User: Fold this.
Amino acid sequence: MKSGVLFVATVLIAIGVVSLAYQGITYTTREKVLEVGPIKATAEKERTIPLPPILGGLALAGGVVLLVVAMRR
Assistant:
């Protein structure tokens, strides 16, 4: 039981740090722009999923609290 709580605490802390450092997840997609017979054209578009700093702070704080509670038991 304790190892599961430690794992979740570690994951929450990591997510919190990454969220605060990068403030979003960026990825690239390819979209078909034109297709005329054998001729095809695509465009790469960069998209970002924003991660609010409050989310990172909450994840980090939750992970620290879980870690402290698990260490006391």
Remarks:
- The first helix runs from residue 2 to 22.
